[in-house]
Amino acid sequence: MGKRKRLVADARKEANKTTYFAKLNNCPTSPRKMNQVADLVRGMDVYKALSVLKFNTREASGRLGKLLKSAIANYEAKTGARPDDDTLFVKTIVVDSGFQLKRLRTAPQGRGYRIKKRSNHVTLVLDTKKLDKK
What we know:
alpha+beta; CATH 3.90.470.10; about 40% helix
């Protein structure tokens, strides 16, 4: 690795030490379905988002709830403190498309239809609220 790349990599690692995030790779849900669930909790407080995901009937909400719990655990590990009720919130949720499994479905008259089984990558970033003292 060159010197310039090493400097950029070190700067990124230092920034990640103060960022509280969790990643879910190769989740076997389509990105559109996962993004609809992610829109529900984007910008919410963490515990309110957990309760919304717990009572949502979508299959993707269980996976996103588990990811949110992992991000909270990462916050606790990095800071050594338990988050208060109103201090921690979901800053960003990014849903990217992952790999696609391409399958064939039998069709009439000797043909075959294509099926794309999609997957996604989810990155969830938490942040603390800055309380202004006046």
